[in-house]
Amino acid sequence: MKYTSIFATASAAVLMSTAAFAGTLDDVKAKGFVQCGVTTGLAGFAAPNDKGQWEGFDVDFCRAMAAAIFGDPEKVKYTPTTAKERFTALQSGEIDVLARNTTWTLSRDVSLGFEFIGVNFYDGQGFMIRKAMGVKSAKELDGASVCIQTGTTTELNLADYFRSNNMKFTSVVFETSEQIRTAYEGNRCDVYTTDRSGLAAQRAVLANPDEHVVLPEVISKEPLGPLVRHGDNAWGDLARWTLNAMIVAEELGVTSANAAEMKSTSTNPEVRRLLGAEGDLGSQLNVSNDWAYNVVTMVGNYGEVFDRNIGPDTPLQLDRGINALWNKGGILYAPPMR
Amino acid sequence: MATELHAVEAERPTAWRDPKIRAIIYQAIVVILFVLFAVYIVHNTAVNLERLGIASGFGFLEQTAGFDLQNDVTGYVTGQGTHLDVLISGAINTLRVAAVGIFLATLLGFIVGVLRLSSNWVVNRLAYVYIEIVRNIPLLLQLLVWYIVVILSQPNVRQAINVGDGVYLSNRGLYVPAVVPEAGFAAIPIALAVGLVLAWGFARFARKRQEATGQILPVIPVNLALVIGLPVIAALATGLPYSFDYPELKGFNFQGGWWLTPEFTALVLGLSVYTGAFIAETVRAGIQSVSKGQSEAAHALGIKPSWTMRLVIIPQALRVIIPPLTSQYLNLTKNSSLAVVVAYGDIVALFSGTSLNQTGQAVEIIAITMLFYVTISLLISLFMNWYNKRMALVER
């Protein structure tokens, strides 16, 4: 065993060699930008716009981190990763943070050596199918060909769901969501399965979105969140509290429009601590004290980011649903900032 | 005089100046540096893996994989198969594509290579255009085009074309009736094997006979009769011991029958058309390398043109063709790792794709995959070297 593992290590050592891991925050400050892993293109979550700039729900998390560290949300470089490449990219130090619709699971957290810093979107896996097929429920999908993306938890959920319902399926497995869309539109498969947010994003860019329907069944829990390498706690803390600050800002009613005013006039100690008017939350995290102020003014609070990228007024038309704040019927809940 | 001799003797090189000793020292230094480098890399990786808390070892091969495999032919059962089964299924899929691809690429390459030398202007330009276009476009793009062509050129599964008795063509692939063996079926493959052995023996006998007496026996008709006739006789004698399982459209897809997937088709087409262009150039170069005097001599002896090609030109051309042909075979096998872009489940897509992603054991999985490709490539090389030796010029 020992020799075989030494051999294996030697053979693939090139993958891992000598990336410097320790002190990501210091490294990021030194190089002057955050290297952020995103999808290769998923409308609403991360996709380049017509000017070639990346935008979307996950991209805004990267921008928030840059705003917290540098006071400038543009100091981000994006690495598009496929579902398959994403973990190796983070493990090897090629990227500093991965914000890419990644489901938080035990084995990813533990044996892959990552740290999920929270959940920025509570999702679940669903199925999309042509309306013309007349299928009303996922239980009627016995024998279907299913298009699916490789390297995802959806692959496992799909197999489990069909097995537990005693149904058969044929999988057609692709590497990127663009390839899946081509195959689905070309009728190579009957069903397209992924997280329901992803289905909404893909449906929005199909030729005739109205001809397709997302079936009601949600077959899994998919808490999607950003992640960092395990063991670099200072960097993980900053990422975690950047996300929490955006949620807390929404809870306190702080928006990009009123943050400046609230910083000077608010008497609410929670607001004042968040925006850096009092306390030393920023210096505890080793960034400037107006970090959260920068995040909210430059990127926005959680609700603003949601509405701008994937909310009801966007092509994705997603409701807040369980992603609403805990006091508004959802389960979004951030620990107190003090 | 004596002093001069002495001077020459004194110039005997010291150990450091001796080229032999110096060569040994240089080689030792290179080896030591290489070993140090390897140790450094291995140590560095091991330490980093440990520090990052990434699990290592080969225990994951025993774990249940839990996902479905596309294009599986090994009888993998989702939910029971382990990552080792995934490895086997992927490896077999790679070998299937490589074997069919090499066969088709060789066929295509030899035909186009000969056509390229045709005296018919249209034929030879067509071959030229094919070679130049295909060789100069990246394989990845060609695969994507083939896949889209294969899917989109065919009708939806509900409007599948019924080509013949139980044969359906649609964008889900080609469905044909499956042969279901019944009792006594074994006689047919046995008859086929006997036919093949007899055909080989007859070909040998005919050659010896021709060398000894000059008499030419009808090898091709006799051998065709042996290879095809014997199994047919066996089937008739045992009362057709098989039935057909016809594919039927049930629910979403066809059920039953044998199924050729669009993914396999696209990958094989892409690989063989691409590699075929390179083989065609190799074949052309090989044929042109045979001196014109050879065919002129054959003509002078009154040998038929088709025999001139088969007995004089091709055997000499093969000596030039085989070595580069080997590297084209290796290229095709390795290029099959692009399978994932057309959703075909080869070893890279399944094992170093999905399994890697589910287990996170990048180092082990990549090492196993590399070992697989090295082994296959070496086996192909060994076989081709053996074949090359057989074909090499035997000097008498």
What is the number of helical segments of chain B per DSSP (H or I, 4+ residues)? 12
Query: Structurally, how many domains make up the residues of chain B?
Result: 2
CATH superfamily of the largest domain in chain B: MetI-like
Determine the structural class of chain B based on helices, strands and strand pairing. Answer: alpha+beta
String of helices and strands of chain A: HHEEEHEHEHEEEEHEHEHEEHHHHHH
Sheet-strand content of chain B, in percent, reads: 5-15%
Q: How would you sum up the major sheet of chain B?
A: 4 strands, antiparallel
Q: How much helicity do the residues of chain B have?
A: 55-70%
What is the terminal-to-terminal distance of chain B?
A: 55 Å
CATH class value of the largest domain in chain B: Mainly Alpha
Count of runs of 4 or more consecutive helical residues of chain A: 14
Largest sheet of chain A: 6 strands, mixed
Membrane topology (chain B): Multi-pass membrane protein
Protein name (chain B): Putative glutamine ABC transporter permease protein GlnM
GO molecular function (chain B): transmembrane transporter activity
Pfam families (chain B): BPD_transp_1
Report on this model:
The complex is a heterodimer of chains A (338) and B (396). By secondary structure, chain A is α/β, with parallel strands linked by helices. In chain A, 37% of the residues lie in helices and 18% in strands. Chain A contains 14 helices and 13 strands. In chain A, the strands form three sheets. In chain A, strands 1, 4, 5, 6, 7 and 13 form a six-stranded mixed sheet that branches. A five-stranded mixed sheet of chain A has the order 10-9-11-8-12, with helices on both faces. A two-stranded antiparallel sheet of chain A has the order 2-3. In chain A, helix 3 crosses helix 9 and helix 3 (57-70) runs antiparallel to helix 13 (291-298). Chain A is globular. Chain A starts with a helix and ends in a 29-residue tail after the last helix. The model of chain A is unreliable at 1-21 (pLDDT under 50). Chain B is α+β, with helices and mostly antiparallel strands and 396 residues long. Chain B has helices spanning 2-10, 19-52, 83-115, 121-135, 139-152, 187-213, 219-237, 262-289, 292-300, 305-335, 347-359, 362-391, and strands spanning 161-164, 167-170, 173-176, 178-181, 242-245, 248-250, 253-255, 258-260. In chain B, the strands form three sheets. Chain B has a four-stranded antiparallel sheet. Chain B is globular, with a radius of gyration of 29 Å. Chain B starts with a helix and ends in a 5-residue tail after the last helix. Chains A and B meet through helix 1, helix 4, helix 5, helix 6 and strand 10 of A and helix 2, helix 5, helix 11 and helix 12 of B. Chain A: Residues 33-262 form the Solute-binding protein family 3/N-terminal domain.
